[in-house]
Specification:
Number of helices: 2
Number of strands: 0
Strand content: under 5%
Length: 80
């Protein structure tokens, strides 16, 4: 969890901004807290995402084909 201080509103309207060096130090400190996935987890996540994308592409493509044929049939009077 973050410090409660980070979420407190600023006391004054004219307070100074964080300088770039402090900002970069804070970014690096936050990146050190990240739990990075292992290579096995990364490969597993990649495969899961790719399978999901392929399934969704297939579903959308079939729906597009079906609706296209339905609209074509409706506007041509049911003849090919």
């Amino acid at each position: 969890m973050s410090d409660a201080k980070a979420h407190e509103p600023r006391a004054e309207k004219g307070t100074s901004r964080t300088n770039p060096v402090t900002f970069l130090r804070q970014v690096i400190a936050e990146l050190r807290k990240v739990v990075w996935p292992t290579q096995k987890q990364l490969v597993t996540y990649f495969i899961v995402v790719m399978v999901f994308v392929v399934v969704m592409m297939t579903l959308v493509s079939l729906m597009d084909l079906g609706f296209g044929r339905l609209v074509f049939w409706a506007f041509t009077g049911g003849t090919n």
